[in-house]
Structures are given as structure tokens and as C-alpha cells.
Amino acid sequence: MRYLKIAIQKSGRLNEDSLKILKQCGISIDNGKDQLKANAKNFPLEIYYLRNGDIPKYLQDGVVDCAIIGENILVEKGKGIAISEKLGFSKCRVSLAVPKSEKYNGISDLTNKRIATSYPETTKNYLAKKGIEAELHIINGSVEIAPNIGLADAICDIVSSGSTLFKNNLKEVEVMMKSEAVLAISSKITPETTAVLDKLRFRIQSVLRGRDSKYVLLNAPNEKLTEITKILPGMRSPTILPLAQEGWSSMHSVINQDEFWDVIDQLKEAGAEGILVCPIEKMVV
Ligand SMILES: Nc1ncnc2c1ncn2[C@@H]1O[C@H](COP(=O)(O)OP(=O)(O)OP(=O)(O)O)[C@@H](O)[C@H]1O
Ligand SMILES: O=P(O)(O)OC[C@H]1O[C@H](OP(=O)(O)OP(=O)(O)O)[C@H](O)[C@@H]1O
Ligand SMILES: [Mg+2]
To answer: Where do the ATP phosphoribosyltransferase catalytic domain residues begin and end (predicted)?
Structure first.
């Protein structure tokens, strides 16, 4: 069987969660400290530890077959690279911000202004789409400081909690894109290696589905079961087992995390009791 080559960030915000999701996929990695390449012990996978910003080039050149990377970096420098799964961590936005004290009436206020950013392509494309001309100052980090030191009138950078903007007296005025970690695929991947990739994707999808769902157990009087089944349809249909107490049953089902509290309220109203909610490690369909 062929080996699948995957790039993950060597150190930084994506590293820990990237390793975690591989582990949740049952993949254990032979990891020496400061190693730039490692092999999985129980899956045909080679892991390359790289800088996030360098990963798009490795994917385009086919040096690696796939990667866990921020969507924002793919938009910035990853033309033609496909996204296979959104992984639900490292969620952030790439936004334009101006000093808090400035009035902002719309994007046209940025005409001919100086904008500091580490994301020149994303910024340029966004401004072009809006028909705005501005001067870009490309810097690699600490972008939020630029307006305070007179280097720029506005900035474009990553925003998550907003605390870096707040500390630097800036306000977010335009969200250019939303981003999260994704599994990205090289267009140079061979059909043989794609077969290994499909196995990894299957495992990742099972982990993600499990993460988004909860296992629910409840007790209900038998005459309420039809109504409760409509609220909790489950994967195919719920499991119903008789309780030792006559006239009562236990129902087991799966529920989506997003609708969790709404469903629990409906279940209580419909007569469910003793509701237990448990995490699901993996969900294979
Ligand atoms: N504050 C944040 N909150 C959530 N996600 C973030 C945040 N900052 C960055 N990210 C996401 O994590 C990715 C990696 O960010 P990080 O700062 O660790 O690396 P980097 O400096 O961009 O890259 P390199 O590995 O090349 O040094 C970003 O591309 C973005 O997708
Ligand atoms: O909205 P917040 O939650 O404050 O997050 C946003 C900050 O996080 C990132 O910086 P990071 O800490 O990764 O530092 P870096 O510039 O050295 O990469 C980003 O560049 C912002 O500065
Ligand atoms: Mg950063």
C-alpha cells in the first residue's frame, strides 16, 4: 500500500488540534522531539511538520498529498487547492479594522488609505471587488500595531476574540472571510494514494460526526413513545427497550449538538423523564 503524506503545522495555533484529530482517528505517531518528519505506527501515513505559510506551495508541487491548514492561507496563497473537509477548529475571520476614534461609513472611506496586512492577496481581491484603490503595506506580524505607530490608516488581519483589536484601540469594520482549519488536498495526488486518503477521510468524518452529536437515553410511558419518536428520530429510528416497571420504556437515540437544548425542552414537554446525555466518540454511517 502507498503512504499518504500529510503536512501539519510544526508549531503554532494549528499544531495541537491537528495532532489531536489524527489521534482521534486512531492514528498513533512515532514522534521524536524536533523531528520534521514522522511515520504513523498503525496507518500508512507520513507526517511532515511545516510552517503554515509554506504548506500551500508543498501541496501545489505535490511534495505532500494533503494538509491540515487554515482556510485563510489557502485563499491567500493556495490557488487551485481543493478543500475536502472543514475540521471545526481554529475558527477566525480575516477582517479590516480602523482606529476606534475614526468614523467609518463604509468601504469607500478606505480609498487611497494605507492598509497594513500579512494577507495582501486576500485584501487586494476584496478591495478590487468593491472597486476601492488603496496602498498596501505588507508586514509579517504584529499588524495591529501599525496604525498606532503611524505606519498605516487601517489594517487587515485575523480576528478571533477581538481582544488584540481592542487592546490596540481598533475596531473591526469589514469581515472579508471566515476561516477554520481544513483538510486540503493536492491536485497531484495519485489514484493509488487517493485510496489511502479516502480511508483517512472516512475516519475524520466519523470523528466530526461524533463531535457534533450526543447520545441520549430517556425513560417514558409507553403511550408517549410515538410522540417522542417524532422528536428524536435518531440515525435510523430510536432503540426502545422495556423497563422493569410495567408500562414504561427506555429510549436511546442520537441528537445533533446544535439543536440540543430545543430538543431537550420538547422531550420534557412530551413526558420524557431521567434524560441522560453522553458524548459520542465516533459515529460511523
Ligand atoms: N487568534 C486566532 N484564533 C483562531 N485561529 C487563529 C488565530 N490566529 C490564527 N489562527 C488560525 O491559525 C492559523 C495558524 O496561525 P499561527 O499564528 O499559528 O501561524 P502563522 O504565524 O500564520 O504561520 P507559520 O506556521 O507559518 O508561522 C492561521 O492561518 C489561522 O487559520
Ligand atoms: O482576536 P484575537 O483573539 O485577539 O486573535 C487575533 C490575533 O491572533 C493572531 O495572532 P497570534 O497570536 O497568532 O500571533 P502572531 O501574529 O505572532 O501569529 C492574529 O494575527 C491576531 O493578532
Ligand atoms: Mg498567528
So the answer is: 51-205
CATH superfamily for domain 4-90+180-210: Periplasmic binding protein-like II (3.40.190.10)
Closest CA to 232 of 246, 213, 247: 213
Ligand 1 atom, smallest distance to 118 CA: 22
Regarding the beta carbon of 221 and ligand 1, being less than 6 Å apart is answered no
Q: Exposed, middle or buried by CB within 10 Å (0-12, 13-18, 19+), for 187?
A: exposed
Whole-number Å distance, alpha carbon 159 to ligand 2 midpoint, is: 7
DSSP per position, 6-29: EEEESSSTTHHHHHHHHHHTT--B
234 compared with 162, residue with greater pLDDT = 162
Nearest ligand to the C-alpha atom of residue 78 = 1
The ipTM is: 0.96
CATH class of 92-179: alpha beta
Q: How far is C-alpha 182 from the chain's CA centre? A: 6
Cα 165 to middle of ligand 1, angstroms: 16
Question: 161 CA to middle of ligand 3, Å?
Answer: 13
- Write out pLDDT tens, residues 165-181: 999 999 999 999 999 99
Distance of CA 280 to the CA centre of its chain: 19
Alpha carbon of 255 to ligand 2 centroid (Å): 35
**Residue ID of nearest Cα to ligand 2 atom 19:** 158
Instruction: Decide if 4-90+180-210 and 92-179 have a common fold.
Output: yes
158 lines ligand 1 (CB under 6 A): yes
Cβ–ligand 1 distance for 122 under 6 Å, the answer no
Q: What is the pLDDT of residue 258?
A: 84
Return d(Cα 201, Cα 65) in angstroms, integer. Answer: 13
CATH class (in words) of the domain with range 213-279: alpha beta
Residues 6+ apart with CB under 8 A from 221: 247, 248, 271
